[in-house]
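User: I'll paste a sequence; please echo it back and then give the predicted structure.

Assistant: Echoing your sequence first, then the prediction.
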Amino acid sequence: LVKIGDKTFLRLEDFKVTSGPDLYVYLSRSTQPTGDVKSLGDFIDLGLLKGTMGNQNYEIIRDIVDYKTVVIWCKRFGVLFTYAFMQ
């Protein structure tokens, strides 16, 4: 997470993921997401993935206390692509 002025962003650095359709970036409270969307619990949708490689920023516009995991999720097919714990 990075702050720029009064805004907070999720920053993905040196990011690389397999290409897929309809990929979205979520923040989740779950520490063990699976292929079932219910495993994400309460999650925040940060929007469509901007690209499958490179550095990317996603603005966070609400409180993210207790959100620990970044999830890349395929909405179209309900598939977990990958996840990582925020530092």
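The chain has no helices and seven strands. Strands lie at 2-4, 7-16, 23-28, 43-48, 53-60, 69-74, 79-85.
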